[in-house]
């Protein structure tokens, strides 16, 4: 086992929806299976519109919740600032 802390940060961009929550099960499986092999910090950065929903639903001690900045841009796309 290495002493280095590894970070896994998932950025949802701006295309997330409530159905995105289903991936939490897979992330928990990864975290459990890798338990003891290396130190890790898992952070999910969800769209602003989903922060409250994820905060209420996320009960995992292995996963932290983060936010992302966003930027208005004319047109279509996941513009999340700089």
UniProtKB/TrEMBL annotation:
Keyword Isomerase: yes
InterPro entries: Aldolase_TIM, TIM_sf, Triosephosphate_isomerase
Entries under Pfam families matching the protein: TIM
Signal peptide: none
Coiled-coil intervals, chain numbering: none
GO molecular function list: triose-phosphate isomerase activity
Keywords assigned by UniProt, alphabetized: Isomerase
Annotated protein name in UniProt: Triose-phosphate isomerase
Species the sequence originates in: marine metagenome
């Amino acid at each position: 086992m290495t002493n280095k802390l590894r970070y896994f940060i998932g950025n949802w961009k701006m295309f997330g929806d409530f159905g995105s929550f289903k991936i939490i099960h897979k992330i928990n499986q990864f975290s459990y299976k890798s338990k003891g092999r290396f130190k890790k910090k898992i952070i999910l950065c969800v769209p602003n519109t989903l922060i409250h929903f994820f905060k209420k639903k996320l009960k995992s001690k292995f996963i932290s919740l983060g936010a992302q900045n966003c930027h208005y841009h004319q047109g279509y796309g996941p513009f999340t600032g700089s």
